[in-house]
Amino acid sequence: MSEEDFKDRVEKGWQVAKRVFGERPAEGQKNGVLSDMVMATAYADIWSRPGLGLRDRSVITCIVLAVQRHETELKVHLRGLAHQGVSRIEAEEMMMHISIYVGWPKALEARRIMTEVFDELEIS
After folding, report:
1. Residues 75 and 102 in one domain
2. Which of 19, 43, 84, 103 is 20 to 30 A off residue 53, Cα-Cα?
3. If residue 119 lies in a helix (H) or strand (E), which one and from where to where?
4. Going residue by residue through the chain (124 aa), what tens digit of pLDDT does each one get?
5. C-alpha dihedral over 88, 90, 93, 98, to 10 degrees?
6. Is the domain of 9 the same as that of 30?
7. Sign of the dihedral through C-alpha 73, 23, 31, 29
8. Same domain, 63 and 101
9. Separation between Cα atoms, residue 95 and residue 63, nearest integer Å
10. Residue 115 in contact with residue 66, Cβ under 8 Å?
């Protein structure tokens, strides 16, 4: 793959991420080559595929991040979840549902993070 092809994939990834999160992060927030790889691979190659909408992909991503206890990334993706139109009640039900499969501590921590993000975004 040429450097130009890679740059095109990175830009496509940023465009998909903008649709997920509602805004494109400032250039200074990018993490160099690692961010470029995430944009090219995760967003340009995977998130843009047909078969699942962005809302469904956001739900799946938040659940996986909650289960793995990746708090920082979960906060980022909960913002995307809210941008995709998921209500507080739906997000709370997601956390309730995962509790029976992953255990109460992980679900409670994920719900705490979700509440923090949704409160910050003033989502009722």
Report:
1. yes
2. 103
3. helix 104-120
4. 798 999 999 999 999 999 999 987 665 456 788 889 999 999 999 999 999 999 999 999 999 999 999 999 999 999 999 999 999 999 999 999 999 999 999 999 999 999 999 999 999 8
5. -110
6. yes
7. negative
8. yes
9. 8
10. no
Please check whether residue 80 is in contact with residue 19, taking contact to mean a CB–CB distance below 8 angstroms. no
- For residue 111, the one-letter residue type is R
Close Cβ partners of 14 (under 8 Å, ≥ 6 residues apart): 24, 39, 43
Residue whose entry in the numeric block shows the structure tokens 């979840």? 81
Residue-number span of the structural domain to which 18 is assigned: 3-47
- The pair of structure tokens assigned to 1 is 């793959």
The pTM score is: 0.89
Residue type, 66: A
Q: Which two tokens stand for residue 2?
A: 């040429």
